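lol ok so funny story. i was supposed to be doing the assay writeup but got distracted and ended up predicting the structure for this chain instead. priorities right. anyway since i did it might as well share w the group, maybe its usefull for someone
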Amino acid sequence: MSELDHTLVPIAPDLEDTVQEALDQRQEADDIVAAALKRGLENVYLVGCGGSHVGTFPAHDLLERYGSAFASYKVQSAELTSRAPAGLGPRSLVVAASHSGNTPETVAAAKFAKEKGATVVGIAKTGESGLAAASDVHLSYGSDITATEPKLVHFAQIALALLEQTDDGDKAAPVRRDVGALPEALKRTKVEIAERGEQIAEALADSPLTYIVGAGASYGSALMMAWCYFQEMQWIHAAAINGGDFFHGPFEMAGQQTPLIALLSEDASRPLNERVLRFANTYVENFYTVDTADLSLPGIGVDARPDLSPIALFSAERRVLDHVAARRGHDTSQRRFMWKVEY
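and the output, tada:
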């Protein structure tokens, strides 16, 4: 067996450019939203599998809290086709994401939505994919190594366009004003999270199980960390727990040496996560936080932080993964089953 590599990978050199590339496609987002509204938009479905699915949480949070002209849903790709929502039709906007653009369930969901008459937006690395072919418009970002952040930006720009082109643009104004600061802010996030990343890496190095807690938009981050980063990319047993439900069963397992990580952004659900924090500070020895309130987020004003900090949280936890992978000597590209066997 080859010697383990404990080298921390550098911050992706294309991070800022890739996020900017997504931001630069605002006009495409504005135009497709205008087309959907012209058709009498009634509902929006944000669709994906795995990381692309949980990456819909921040945009869905914007739409569900602020959007008064339509209903918003976040749906796993295969569930969209298997459940066949009654409301899916010509007055629907479906925004589907897949890094490769060829995730079978997501391509099938896009095709299914088109058959129902919906307006479909595809988000993927490039336009040469099954998802792009099944969509009315394709939003790209062109990077093999920076994927989470630009997908979040594309979802956010669709959400902002929906709010701005209905009667809720005033609620979106601070976010629109500062969303352009994300390239630099996310780069700073990855630098500033280094010390906490090393602490978590040390705690998880030999732990057989980790609990991750988040509420609201940050519950999406908890799912990403547990499913995609620790289970898929590190082969660590991990459980994501909704912060609102932590005290309805899971907290009985706290304080038994198993690491507990609380993920906090500055959105409206933060008090749920702060309640977990208060409990854990009293009863859990092996407890860590990843908190956007500790980040500088240059260029993002106080009034925009509640709605943009969930994106920063996703970016911060992705860098935490790099620290964990280096500490464990486990390359994040290793797989046993994914893309290797029929499933």
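DSSP finds 14 helices and nine strands in the chain. The longest strand covers residues 43-48.
back to the writeup now i swear
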